[in-house]
Task: inverse folding
């Protein structure tokens, strides 16, 4: 699989070379609050996280990408189809931008790339995003990428000890240009 590019970012398939950066990303306070990353983050988690996506690519159950600066090669974050169900023709997408790269439109450009790739390369009819109601920056990304707000799932399980209200956004193949 080749990299996907837009402007100053590219999405490249997640590999073992990204494990250290993924480990650092997992330890970000906002990542802990708004994602399924375990708390506390276990030692070596970045390598296991990458392995999950490497295996998932082979098994067609998920697909993970590193968001990388096209010019410097710096790791900027993570973009993925975190759950991929080809039989149902559906996927859940997710994204995390490194704290030092937030506020620059990276998640928006990355989600546009991922969405276009997913609809062009996979037999998907629906991609959904699950966003904590308190994560307004992520909700803005969904809106800018043309995802439709469907509603709120109340008090859903995120991980041990953490429940929250979760906004569901989706985009359908027929809505994709």
Result:
């Amino acid at each position: 699989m080749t990299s996907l590019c837009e402007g100053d970012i590219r999405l490249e398939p997640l590999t073992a070379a990204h494990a250290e950066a993924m480990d650092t990303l997992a330890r970000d306070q906002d990542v802990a609050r708004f994602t399924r990353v375990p708390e506390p983050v276990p030692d070596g988690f970045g390598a296991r996280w990458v392995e999950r996506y490497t295996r998932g690519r082979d098994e067609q159950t998920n697909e993970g990408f590193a968001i990388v600066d096209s010019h410097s090669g710096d790791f900027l974050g993570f973009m993925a189809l975190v759950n991929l169900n080809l039989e149902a023709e559906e996927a859940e997408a997710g994204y995390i931008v490194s704290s030092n790269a937030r506020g620059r439109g990276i998640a928006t450009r990355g989600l546009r790339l991922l969405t276009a790739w997913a609809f062009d390369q996979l037999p998907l009819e629906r991609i959904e995003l699950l966003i904590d109601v308190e994560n307004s920056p992520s909700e803005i990304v969904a809106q800018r990428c043309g995802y439709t707000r469907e509603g709120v799932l109340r008090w859903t399980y995120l991980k041990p000890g953490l429940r929250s209200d979760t906004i569901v956004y989706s985009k359908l193949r027929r809505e994709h240009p």
Notes: The beta strands are 4-6, 9-13, 63-69, 75-85, 90-97, 126-132, 148-159, 162-172. The two ends are 23 Å apart (CA to CA).
